[in-house]
Amino acid sequence: MPRILITDYEFESISQEQAVADANGVELVRANCRTEDDVIEAAAEVDGLIVQYAPITERVLKGLPRLKAVSRYGVGVDTVDVQAATECGVVVSNVPDYGVEDVSDHAVALALTLARGIPDLDRGIRDGENVLDSVKPLRRFSSQTFGVIGLGLIGAATAAKAKALGFRALGYDPLHTPGTTTKEGIQVVTFDEPRGRVRRRIPARAVEQAHPPLDQRTHAGAVQGRGHHREHLPGRGD
Ligand SMILES: NC(=O)c1ccc[n+]([C@@H]2O[C@H](COP(=O)([O-])OP(=O)(O)OC[C@H]3O[C@@H](n4cnc5c(N)ncnc54)[C@H](O)[C@@H]3O)[C@@H](O)[C@H]2O)c1
Which CATH class is domain 100-232? Predict the structure, then answer.
């Protein structure tokens, strides 16, 4: 009987996975792996892995000769060495539409909160201070630009929601041609344009969000963050 290991998970129930496994004659086992060694030990006798956060590195893949497939809970495969998996003949899959609504809702919620100065106002009111001046000028969404880097499922959903709220939504994505408009009505611009336009038009109160996958090129930006990521995204020569 084929065996599949859920290396790690933080869901309350795996009854759906169990039902699919039972219906297909698969034995489902579970663990709480955090490290490479945890995975190698727990997965020695399995054909497939379902992974939340556990690291599926080259060392892990080479240490599991019986393994045939790795499936990630979620979109990103940055925790899986896909090249090593390919070399080992292991198929890697993901859940491409995981969390689109939730992440885009949250991204817009954070942007609106900052755009209206809510954290400062909330803190000020709780401290009994009048902080209205500190958040001025508060501009209408309809006078602001919302720039999104990475117009995939989440980025496009985020930009569409921002557009519906009145923002001028535009974005960059290497898969889209600058000068065109996406099916969600988002203007596609060159890489520099979201920031360039935002800076020129509304220097202090504009929104820019990045929703690309985490890979070698975007990782440098993600760890440096704080406005430096643009230098590390593709098209910048690194
Ligand atoms: N935190 C969470 O709960 C959560 C949930 C779902 C997804 N995510 C993450 O959000 C990211 C986006 O998810 P998605 O569903 O939109 O993925 P997606 O694959 O639909 O879209 C990613 C987009 O980014 C673009 N892209 C790639 N490299 C880029 C770059 N250097 N600059 C600009 N754009 C680039 C791609 O062309 C693609 O259109 C993924 O990394 C995913 O892991 C996080």
Answer: alpha beta
Taking the centre of ligand 1 as the mean of its atom positions, its distance from the CA of residue 154, in whole angstroms, is: 7
* Position in ligand 1 atom list of the atom nearest CA 212: 24
- Ligand 1 centroid to Cα of residue 211, in Å, is 5
pLDDT digits (tens, 9 = 90+) for 138-195: 889 998 899 999 999 999 999 999 999 999 999 999 999 999 999 999 999 988 766 6
146 near 167, Cβ under 8 Å? Answer: yes
- List, for residues 13-26, the tens digit of each pLDDT value: 999 999 999 999 99
**CATH 3.40.50.720, the chain: domain bounds:** 3-93, 100-232
Pocket test for ligand 1, best of 75, 104, 184, 233 (most atoms within 8 A of CB): 75
Q: For residues 151 and 171, is the Cβ–Cβ distance under 8 A?
A: yes
Where do the H-state alpha helices sit in 46-117? Answer: 58-62, 82-87, 100-115
Residue 172's φ and ψ, nearest 5 degrees, are: -120, 140
Q: How far is ligand 1, taken at its centre, from the CA of residue 208, in Å?
A: 15
Q: Which atom of ligand 1 is nearest to the CA of 214?
A: 41
- What would be the CATH architecture of the domain defined by 3-93? 3-Layer(aba) Sandwich (3.40)
Q: Is the pLDDT of residue 234 over 50?
A: no
d(CA 205, CA 137): 8
Report pTM. 0.84
Query: What tens digit of pLDDT does each residue of 34-49 get?
Result: 999 999 999 999 999 9
